[in-house]
Specification:
- The structure is a single chain.
- The protein is mainly β.
- It has one domain: Beta Barrel (Maltoporin, Chain A).
- Helix content is 7%, strand content 55%.
- It has five helices and 36 strands.
- The protein has a 22-stranded antiparallel β-barrel. A five-stranded mixed beta sheet has the order 1-6-7-4-5.
- β23 and β24 form a beta hairpin.
- The two termini are 30 Å apart.
Length: 677
C-alpha cells in the first residue's frame, strides 16, 4: 500500500474519532447539519440568476444539468461552456487541459472546494482525473467573480474553474446516507464509486468517497494516406491506451460551539496509464510503449467566522504532494530508455478579512503564502524552490441597480535553486474593476463591463527542464477587457429564459513560446510571443413547460475568437490564428423531463483549427461535431432510489482529432446503475 494512502486512511479515521470526542457532547438548539434542502428547480433558478447578475461572465452547471450532458469527467462537462477550448489527447486516460478565451491552460486557476489546485512543474491541471460522481456544481468565472471574500489566489488568474463537491444533507432522523454506482461501456470501461454521508452529531458531519476506473482504451480510428480525394485509408486501433485510476476522498464538516464553521478534507489519487503516441503516416502500428504513473495527495482545511455584524474572517491551509514517474523503454540514448521521476510539494496558507463599512459598501483584504519545491532524479537538476506572497485589497458596492467591484493584487516571488544560476525575483501589481447596471427597474436587463491585468509566472519546466528551460524568462503579462449584456425573464410557459452576450479583447505580451535553436531537435523557451484576441460569447437557456409534469430544458452557446499571433510583422505567421483555437465553436443541449423517463441530447462542434502558428493547408485540422444521446429512468421506494442511464456518445461515429495525431473515439456506449440509500 502506498505511503500516501496509509497517511490518508490514518488521518481520516483519527479525525473522525477526534471530532466525535470533542463535539459529541455539545448541545445545540438547531440541527446545523441540514444543508441545502431546496428543490432542484429552486436551486437551478438561484444559479441562473447568479449568472445573469454577475458583473463578469459566469457560467454554471448544476449536478442536475450535468446528468443530462452524457459526460464522464469534469473535462467533458466544461466543453459546454462558451469560450472554452479543451485540449484533449483522446480516450479516457488522455491528457485534458483547458484554455479559456485563448489564454492557455496556465492562465486558468482550478479550485476544489474553495482552495486552488496547483502544479508548479507544468502550470496546468489535468481535468481528466476528476470524475463527476461527487460533484455538486461546476462554475467558470472569466476575469474576476463578484465574491470579494476569497483567498488572494482567486484574483491571480485570467479565469477560475470551480469544482464544488457534494456536502452532506440530512432529514430529521437521518444518520447515514450513501450512493453506489457502476458504469460500464465501450473500450473496456469499468467505473465503480461509493459515497457515504454520516451525521456524527448535530454539529459534525462527514463524507467519504472512493472510486475505481479502468479501461483498455483500444478504440478504432481511420487513417487517410495523402490529402487528395480517392487517397487510400485504413482502420487502425489505438494501442498502449490502458488506464487504471483510484480516488479516495474524506471530509469532515463542523459547526463550532464558539462560532464559525469549517471543514477538513484529505484527497488521494493514483493512476497508471499508457501514453499512446501520435498517429503519423506509415507509422500506425502504435509501437510507442511510454508509461506514466502519478500519485497526488493533498489535505486542506477551511475555517470561517462572522466576528461581528461588521467583520468576518476566514483562513485556509493546504499541503500538496505530487509524484510523477515517466518511462520510455525504447528511447535511443546511452541507457536505452528514459526513466524519470519528479516529486513536487506545496505548503500553502491564506487569511481573509471582510469589513462591511456601510449597508451597500464592503471591503476585503486577503493574503496568501505558498512554498513550492520540485525534485527529480535527473543529473545536475536545479532543485528549484519558490516562495510566493499574494496580497489583494478589494471593494464592493451593491444597490438595487448597481453592482461594482474593484481591487488590486500585489505579487512577490522569491526563487532559488541548488544547482546553477537562480531566477530573478518578481514583483507585480495587478488592478481590476467590474460593474453591472440594471437601467430598467421593471426588467431584469443588465449591462456589464470589466477590466483585469494579471501575469503568469514561468513554470519550473519553462525555467529548468533539461535542454529546453530558460532561466532568464520573464512572466507573461495579460490584459482583459469585456463588455456585455444579460437578459432574464419568465412567462407562464417559460419558467426561465436567459441570454448573455459578451464581447472581449485580450492581449498577452512576453508570451512564453518554444523555439528551435540550431535544428528542429534542439529547442528552448523564449519570451517572443504577443497575442491579440477579439471574441464574442453568446449563451441562451430556457425551461419550457409543455404539459403538466412534462418539461423541456434547452440551451446553446456560440463562440467567435480571432486569436492572432502579432509577435513579428516580418515573420510569415504574423496575424495568423494561434494553434488549436477555432475561429467559431459552440454547443447545444436539450433535455425532455417526464414522469416515466428523461431523454437528453447534446452536442459540441468546432470549426477548423491549425496545429502550428503557420496557417498553412498542411497544418489545418478540419472542423467536427460530436453528438450524444441519453435515456434515464428513476425508481424510488420508501428508503431507496434507483437510477438507470444509457448513453450513446458520438452516435454519428465521426472520425476527428482535437490535437493532431491523437484521434478521438468513435461511437461508444455507456451504461450506469446507481443506488441511493
Amino acid at each position: 500500500m502506498s505511503i500516501y494512502l496509509e497517511k490518508f486512511i490514518w488521518v481520516f479515521f483519527c479525525l473522525l474519532f477526534f471530532s466525535e470526542t470533542i463535539y459529541g457532547e455539545i448541545p445545540t438548539e438547531k440541527d446545523t447539519a441540514k444543508i441545502r434542502l431546496l428543490p432542484e428547480i429552486i436551486v437551478s433558478e438561484k444559479f441562473q440568476r447568479s449568472e445573469i447578475r454577475s458583473t463578469t461572465p459566469l457560467q454554471i452547471l448544476s449536478a442536475k444539468k450535468i446528468e443530462n450532458l452524457n459526460v464522464l469527467q469534469v473535462s467533458d462537462a466544461i466543453k459546454y461552456f462558451s469560450g472554452v477550448n479543451v485540449k484533449d489527447y483522446g480516450g479516457i486516460g488522455g491528457l485534458k487541459t483547458v484554455s479559456v478565451r485563448s489564454f492557455g491552460a496556465e492562465h486558468t486557476a482550478v479550485s476544489y472546494d474553495g482552495i486552488t489546485l496547483t502544479d508548479c512543474q507544468t502550470g496546468q491541471i489535468d481535468l481528466g482525473r476528476f470524475s463527476l460522481d461527487n460533484v455538486d456544481m461546476l462554475s467558470l468565472n472569466n476575469g474576476q467573480g463578484d465574491n470579494i471574500f476569497l483567498p488572494a489566489r482567486f484574483f491571480a488568474s485570467s479565469s477560475v474553474l470551480n469544482i464544488r463537491t457534494l456536502e452532506p444533507s440530512f432529514g430529521e432522523k437521518e444518520k447515514l446516507k450513501g450512493k453506489i454506482s457502476l458504469k460500464t461501456g465501450s473500450f473496456g470501461l469499468i467505473n465503480t464509486s461509493l459515497l457515504l454521508e454520516t451525521k456524527i452529531n448535530r454539529n459534525v458531519s462527514a463524507t467519504f468517497g472512493g472510486e475505481w476506473l479502468s479501461a483498455n482504451g483500444e478504440y478504432p480510428y481511420r487513417v487517410t494516406y495523402g490529402t487528395q480525394e480517392g487517397d487510400s485509408s485504413s482502420i487502425e486501433t489505438r494501442k498502449n491506451t490502458d488506464v487504471a485510476t483510484l480516488r479516495l476522498e474524506g471530509t469532515i464538516y463542523a459547526n463550532f460551539a464558539w462560532g464559525g464553521s469549517g471543514y477538513l478534507k484529505s484527497y488521494y489519487y493514483s493512476s497508471e496509464r499508457g501514453l499512446p503516441g501520435a498517429v503519423i503516416y506509415y507509422m500506425n502500428e502504435n509501437t510507442n510503449h511510454q508509461r506514466s504513473n502519478d500519485r497526488t495527495f493533498f489535505t486542506q482545511a477551511h475555517f470561517e467566522k462572522k466576528i461581528s455584524p461588521l467583520w468576518s474572517f476566514q483562513t485556509n491551509a493546504k499541503y500538496h504532494n505530487g509524484f510523477l514517474h515517466y518511462l520510455d523503454p525504447n528511447y535511443n540514448n546511452s541507457d536505452g530508455k528514459i526513466d524519470n521521476t519528479y516529486l513536487q510539494e506545496e505548503y500553502y496558507i491564506s487569511a481573509s478579512l471582510l469589513f462591511k463599512a456601510f449597508e451597500k459598501l464592503s471591503f476585503s483584504f486577503s493574503t496568501d503564502y505558498s512554498l513550492n519545491t520540485l525534485e527529480a532524479n535527473l543529473p545536475n537538476f536545479a532543485y528549484p524552490k519558490r516562495n510566493t506572497v499574494l496580497s489583494v485589497f478589494n471593494a464592493k458596492y451593491v444597490s438595487n441597480q448597481w453592482l461594482a467591484t474593484a481591487g488590486c493584487l500585489g505579487t512577490l516571488v522569491d526563487g532559488s535553486v541548488k544547482n546553477g544560476e537562480t531566477t530573478e525575483n518578481q514583483q507585480h501589481i495587478s488592478p481590476f474593476f467590474s460593474f453591472a447596471v440594471n437601467p430598467f427597474e421593471s426588467h431584469d436587463f443588465r449591462f456589464r463591463c470589466f477590466y483585469k491585468n494579471n501575469f503568469r509566472l514561468p513554470t519550473f519546466n519553462d525555467l529548468y527542464y533539461s535542454y529546453v528551460g530558460n532561466r532568464n524568462l520573464k512572466p507573461e503579462n495579460a490584459q482583459q477587457f469585456n463588455a456585455g449584456i444579460t437578459w432574464n425573464f419568465s412567462t407562464e410557459k417559460l419558467s426561465l429564459f436567459s441570454v448573455t452576450l459578451d464581447a472581449y479583447h485580450n492581449e498577452i505580451t512576453n508570451k512564453i513560446v518554444a523555439f528551435p535553436n540550431k535544428d528542429l531537435f534542439n529547442w528552448t523557451m523564449k519570451n517572443c510571443g504577443k497575442v491579440s484576441v477579439d471574441g464574442l460569447d453568446l449563451t441562451a437557456e430556457s425551461g419550457i413547460s409543455i404539459v403538466k409534469n412534462i418539461g423541456l430544458v434547452i440551451g446553446a452557446s456560440y463562440t467567435y475568437q480571432r486569436a492572432l499571433n502579432i509577435t513579428n510583422p516580418n515573420e510569415d505567421d504574423y496575424k495568423h490564428q494561434i494553434p488549436y483555437t477555432p475561429r467559431i465553436s459552440g454547443s447545444g443541449k436539450a433535455a425532455l423531463e417526464m414522469p416515466w423517463f428523461n431523454l437528453s441530447y447534446s452536442f459540441i462542434w468546432s470549426g477548423h483549427r491549425y496545429s502550428l502558428f503557420q496557417n498553412y493547408a498542411s497544418n489545418r485540422l478540419p472542423g467536427f461535431a460530436d453528438h450524444n444521446l441519453s435515456l434515464s429512468r428513476n425508481f424510488k421506494t420508501s428508503r431507496t432510489s434507483y437510477s438507470l442511464q444509457l448513453e450513446l456518445n458520438n452516435f454519428l461515429d465521426k472520425n476527428y482529432e482535437i490535437v493532431r495525431g491523437f484521434p478521438m473515439p468513435g461511437r461508444s456506449l455507456r451504461a450506469t446503475v446507481a443506488v441511493k440509500f
